[in-house]
User: What shape does this take?
Amino acid sequence: MAGPTIGGGRIPGWGIVRRVLRTLGSVTLTFLGLTVVTFFIGRVIPIDPVLAIVGPKASNETYDRVRAEIGLDLPLPVQYWRYLLKVLHGDFGTSVITSQPVLRDMLDVFPATLELAVLALLIGVVLGVPLGVVAATHRGRWQDHLIRLLSLFGYSTPVFWLGLIGLLLFYAKLGWVAGPGRIDVGYDDMVPTVTGLLTVDALLDGNSEVFVNALRHLVLPASILGYLSLAYVARMTRSFMLGQLRQEYVLAALAKGLSHGRVVWVHALGNVWVQLITVIALTFGSLLEGAVLTETVFSWPGLGLYMKNSLFNADLNAVLGGTMLVGVVYIGLNLISDLIYPLVDPRVRGQRR
Amino acid sequence: MLLLAAFAALPMVAARAATPPDTIVIVKQIDDIITLDPGEDYELSGVEIATNIYDRLLRYEAEDVSKLVGGVAESWTVSPDGKVFTFKLRPGQKFQNGDPLTAEDCAFSLQRVVLMDKTPAFLLDQLGWTKDNVKDLVKATAPDTLQFTIKADLAPSLVLNLMTSIVASVVDKKVALEHEDKGDLGNGWLKSHSAASGAYKLVAWKPNESVVLEANPNFRMGPPKNRRVVVRHVPETASQLLLVKQGDADIARDLSPDQLATLSGDKDVSVASFPGSDTWYFGMNLADERLKNPKVREALKYLVDYDGMVNSFLKGRMFVHETFLPNGFLGALDYNPYKFDVAKAKKLLAEAGYPNGFDLRMDAPNTSPFTEIAQSVQQTFGEAGIKVSIVPEELKAVLGVYRARKHQLLLVSWGPDYFDPHTNADAFARNTDNSDKPATKPLAWRNSWYIPELSKETAEAAKELDTAKRIKMYEDIQKKVTDEGAFILMFQTAQPVAARANVTGFRAGLTEDITFYRLTTKH
Assistant: This one.
């Protein structure tokens, strides 16, 4: 695995180049694999995409014409090759439902999901990590049991059920939050779209009323999604922390006279972050998926709702485009967490020197 | 929970607001909308929206939906041979932007439907209009006079009814052509914009999210009292229920019977039910030897618990109607000969040579209330020894199976295309080419029910000039289809509507073509 050398020493930077190349290679392969799988799954679903366009009452003539138009009469590998070429040119085709280019649709719906997922992740991490730490340090005591019960409930309860119960309780009975949808009808279209994140756009526009209303709509679905990620993050933090607390350095630090809190929250937790980053990245990815059901319950016009409708309407281009987007986000998250490792792991930092 | 309370505390400052006073908010499943161009629009929710945006040549108007009246046209005449139709337009009409509305716009609007050849084009194709002849057959003979000639033998009442459908929507020719792109006659732009003269203009359509309409000041009857109508896509019906209960929506359209039941006694929300025009039925494929036997088909018709279903899980949502023309249509009939009767069914099955019944496969959509109907029928068929295995699928997949004639028994619903009996007769009572590649695939064909004689009657009825005679013919055709046909016709839909108590005047129409928003007001 040694790189080329000059006078016994390595060329500086070669390691980085190699790493970048390797990453690029794996990204390309993953991406290709993703297109193959989604494409062929899209072709074997029992819904006829031609019927989705022409409707069940169309004549045979129209049916055959449209079938040829979208290239479904060609052999599968040819269809795939054509699709791949288009995708490489950034052309994901046109959606049957919206009659817009799929890429444009993605740009329209993705911010809504992103807004939801980011807040959910914040809730999950900000609360999940400390809960996990507390559970680990109080192992076997009531705090631990309570937190584990909370987690168990979180990842074993269907999210749509939580959503409906949440709506019933916090919206219908208590009136603490606003109902389904992203914003009240009266505030619709009151701030110009800049980022697509409604709360951010409202702040940029300096419109506090819209901001508050958007936040009231956002809180409940984000809390419910956040609860799911909290459950997972807390459970993983707990088990990572238990692993660390068994290490000798913890004992040594305590023996040296450091406070218990400092040892737990700084030293032990500091070592857990590396593993946690992967967990958090994966959680973020699964939030995008979890959004499908949440968005349906909350009429949230994001990627999840878009994908669901596309799937049920056999809108193949839209389904493939959406899947690709989620896939690309996953790949991106993996890349980012790779990049962050050296920042939090002193050992990786050490290797660099 | 603490977490939520903490989060909720901050936004508490904003008081809960009801919907704005001049805006009607409707929550409904509208993910079927793919376009709002009236020359292309053919989805249920899309047609309903277009009904409220575009005025049509003729109309069944909101004030009395049973009477054919002029829309854009004030009066009309039909030549004695029933081929030439002349329409005189109302004077002084304007489009939403102030452009004058002329016969030129009307001719253009009809022509572009045929020229664009999108989904609803078949409605006008049956008049004998083609891309090559439509510009000669449809003409403005004066600024206020539209004249067209039909090439097919059709009853004038059918042709006039077609002029109340979506394809007779009048589009502003100037605006459409200003936005033309590669010869699309403005189709691309009109998908999400309006160039109309109806009660409302389109402000915005966001797919899967909402449609926003605003009162059109130039509407010939004056602008509607409610300034804005917002139709919001709420896929989950439980969410719709909460929204209307809380006052964040004025009208909810898709509530299920058990959800409606929770509203009884709620003084803030009232529930009303309006007949719809969908027919729910089973198709029996005669390609199956057993189902080819008329006695077997008759037996199955006695094995459905019609009353049991409408009195339980279909309550308020459907009523028993065993003929193919919905109540409210010309020629509709009150004829429900079949009741749940196991003894009679067993006797018929024995006569047919199946005293112990047989196994049967049923394709059914996997959503409510299809699922419940499928299960009820599975149980009642079982009482006569017929073992039904249900294959639940996405509705679109079921339709695929149906068009390929791969089913034995198949549960589905059918909605009429326009307000004339021919639309349903042409589907249920026509099959003159039972080969695997016919030009069209009417429902009789999909069930391999080959009926050259009855098809002739259907064609004759479409041509009959004398309306009284025409009604008689449809009554006769319906009885034959109910008695001998390949269908177990069961129910006609009802449309329950939950509305806030301060909202009045909303009526769900028999079809989307007569569902109007403009008479709805808020106090």
